[in-house]
Structures are given as C-alpha cells and as structure tokens.
Amino acid sequence: MKAVIAEDLVKTYNKGSVRALDGLNLDVEEGTVLGVLGPNGAGKTTTVRILATLLAPDSGRATVGGIDVLKHPDEVRKIIGLSGQYAAVDETLTGWDNLIMFGRLYHLSAKEAKVRAIELLEQFSLSEAAKRPIRTYSGGMRRRLDLAASLIIRPKVLFLDEPTTGLDPRGRQDMWGVIDELVKGGVTLLLTTQYLEEADHLADEIAVIDHGKVIARGTSDSLKKQVGGERLEIVVENENLQATKEIVAKVSGSAVNVDEGLRQISAPVTTGSKALIEAAKLLDEKGIHPLDIGLKRPSLDDVFLSLTGHVAEEKTDENLETATGRKKGKK
Amino acid sequence: MMNAISDALIITKRQLLQLARVPEVLIFSTIQPVMFVLLFRYVFGGSIDTGQPGGYVQLLMPGIFVQTVAFTLAATAVGLSADMQKGLIDRFRSLPISRSAVVFGRTLGDGVLNIVVLAVMGLTGFLVGWRPTSGALNVFLGFVFLFVFGFAMSWVGVLIGLSVREERVAQNVTFIAVFPLTFLSNAFAPTTGMPKALQYFAEWNPVSTMVAGCRELFGLKNEFGATAGSFPSENPLLMSIIYMILIMAIFVPLSVRKYNNAAKK
Known about the structure:
The complex is a heterodimer of chains A (331) and B (265). By secondary structure, chain A is α/β, with parallel strands linked by helices. Chain A contains eleven helices and 14 strands.
C-alpha cells in the first residue's frame, strides 16, 4: 500500500516563467522512509507543501494515506504531521505552551493535550526546558520541539522538510537519533534534504530531484551502482608505484588510474572483495606494504554529479563537504 | 461552527499568553496612547478654543480613542506578518482546524488588547479632566462602538499582514495608511481650517464619523465636523455603522481567502 502518491505534479511561479515542479512523480510505501534529495531550488519544499495541503499544484494529482490532497485537504490534515525548514513554533511561548496550544488545535481535550505534551517532552528530552520560552532554546532543541508538535496526533504520514538544515553536527546527530526512533515506530516518512549523507543514513529509498523532476530513484546502494561499480584503491610509497600498478592492472583487467600526487592507484573491479584479497596477496608476495588499501564505492555525491552534471549546491556545513572538493561558506 | 469558534479562541488565548510571557508588550502598547493623551491635552489644549464647557480634553478624548483603535490595523498586520515569516502560518494551515480560525482568533485577540488600552486611556483622560456627561449606558455604548471599529480595522490589517513580505514592511505600510487617515479628520482640530478638497475628504473619512459619533455618545456636540452640513456630519453614528459593515463585508472574506492561499514570500 502506498502511503503517498504524487503524479505529474506541475507548479509554476511568476506566470509560468519559473517551473518549480515540472511533472514530478513519486510514491512512498507505507512504513518506509523516502528521502527526497536535491539542491536548493530543485522543488523539494514545493513538493512537501503540495502534499501537506498548503499549496495547490497547477496540474497533477496527489494522495496521502489514500486520500486526495486536492479534494479532501481537511481529511489529509487529520493524518499528517509537518515539520518545516524553519522551526514553526511560537518563540515567545514556552515549549509547554506550544504543545498544549497545538494539542488543543488538534481537538484534544485539555487533559489529553497535557498527557500528550508530557509524553512528547519526555520523548524528545525537553522536559527540563518545558517551562522556558522557545527563544532560549538551542537550534537543535527548537527543531526537536517543532518535530514534537508535528507528532501530537501520531500522524500516519510525516513530512520533514530539511530537518537538519542549519544545525550544528551535534544537533544533527541528535535529530538523526530522534528520527531513527520514529521510523522504528513504523511511521511513514517523507524527508527532504540537501545532505547526501543524511539521505544515505535515514532513507530506505532515495528520489533524486533536480529542476522539478525526479531524475533517479532507488536505494542508496542501487543509485551508487547506477553510477558505476566499485573501485579498488591502493596508496603506496613512491618507489612501489610501478609494481603496484602492474598488480592492479592484473587484478582489474581494466584501465588503471595513477595519481602520483596522492600516490594512489585505482581501477574498477567487478569481483568485489575477492579482487581486494587477491591484490593484497600479490602485494604481500612482492613485499609491498600498502599505506592504504580498500574498495571504494561511489558516494552519493558521485551519484549526484553523474546524474545532474553538477554537485549538490548550497552546502551549508563543512562537515558534509563533498568528495568533489567544492567548498562553500555557510549561508 | 462550534469548532470554528473554539479554534479561534485557542489562537486568541495564545496571544494573551504571549502578553503574559512578555508583559512589556502590553505596557508599551498602553504607554503610547496614554502619552498621546497627555501631550495633546497639554500642548494643544491651551491654544484651541472649543467654545464648549470642559475645554479641549472633552473633544480630544473621542478623537484619540478612535486614533488608537484605528491603529489596531497595524498591530494585526505586524503580528500576522511575523507569524508568516516564522512559518507558523504554514503550521496552522497544516492542522485540521477551521479555515478562518487563525485570522478570526488574531482579530479577536487584538480586540481584547484594545479593551485594556481603552480602559487605561479612559482612566488617564478622567485624571486630566475628561468628563463624559451622557450617562453610563451611552458611555458604555461609545466604548462598544470603539471596540467594533478596532475589530473592523483589524481585518484590513489581516490582509496587509498576509500580503507583505516582512514585518517591517507591514509596520511601514500600515503607518503610512493610518496616520493621514487619523489626521485628515476632525479628531484633533476643526476641519474648517483645511483646504476645501481636504475638508471634503475629512467630512467623509470614517475616522471623522467615528469621532463625531463617539462625541455624541459621550454627550457632546460635535463642533469639529459640522461645517458643511453634509450627510456624514449630520448622521455620524449611522455613517460609522455603515462604514464598519462595509469594511468587514469587504475585508473579512478577502482576508480569509488570503489566509487560505497564504504562502511565504
């Protein structure tokens, strides 16, 4: 059963001059996590806004939990949770005030709202901060409270729009932990991210979108395979470069790439760990001790680069810098 | 329907909670009108001859009440604009609540704030010599009138707040709109001194009809607006009611629609 279906969604802005979505198709199997991966401006947020009933597409259709988003938005709102890129909670109020307010807006009784607020504050390690105004919270705490607010009614389908954008590495780790727990609890999750690592970590399946379209779809592994198989990479001392090159050529049977600067020799292999063991054995016979040896699978950055011809843009965190070495400051 | 009202009241309650959490907001939004009362009373009061018993303050108080509630428009616009920028409107719109609850709750909340402000201003007015002579019922009716006018203006603020890109714009736009409206009126000085075209505008200005109406309800002849013998200055209460109905008939549906299509700019 598909928990989310989007068919041929088109959304244009500025009288058609900007095509935010250009025939987007995707679906999410119940109880799974779909990571929607793409650079800024690819159409991620527009997709979420349409699915969460905030925005009507120019054309196309969408269902959430089997309910038509355009025809019965009120029914959809009863089964979804939305947590956006910006922590959408009232900063003047305390965490407690916020959860009670949203609980009441979900039509819980005063008592139910209180019980649920206590549970959620506990679950998200915010009990101690409950009576403090949100503006005193750290970025990570705000996001957790925002997420808690979207879980008040235990939604069937949860939309998280860039849940860790702007968080420091610690905050991101915490958030991942929290999301992992939710997924174990069986929620269907559609998550957008511009962090390749995040999609890899959290999602069962990844849809790569660019210019308003899904350009690739699959598990992290299958996407990596799509880009190319594994490569054997060996780093050795300078004097062993030539001998190692010959060994790698023999194991691989394909063209060998030598990077003298890195003292690295690499070549595509098809036999996986077998090739690795064989190469290690041959090196050992020659008395060569590699500084590093391994099988490298393409990163999601490689996937993105080969699919779109450009790297994922607007990196906001240096820890997630891509293998392509492209560097951008914090935004 | 019941849900629509209870949802709106939750939003109103949120606004009151905000005031409880940050009382400075209430304090300063009260200080400003009180300051206006004192400034106008003592700066202009001495030089404007009203020809009526009790002096300028009798005419001033209705004027300044109306000016203050007219500015509800700004408060509503700024508040909603801030909610929009912070993504709160998105969250509210993703909830299974009535489509008018958030804007209705907001205008109601700003109305409640007006009650507090009007009470403090009335008290200040009393301390500096304001004495309505029309009896408790009429005075009460006068305040009801002011409350409803503020509520109507608040709906104009909803549309502005949801249409502009950020809070500061909301602030500027509303001030530019409301200041001329309150000064091109009979609120603080007779309209007779104005150029003819402005006199005509001032005559029909809803602020003028409101001020004139309140002066009547507080037991005062409206000297400041009775120049041309025109319909609005002869029937200020009726005209004010028509204006309030008109404003709401136009801006309530527009605002609710705007909210339902609201998108962060």
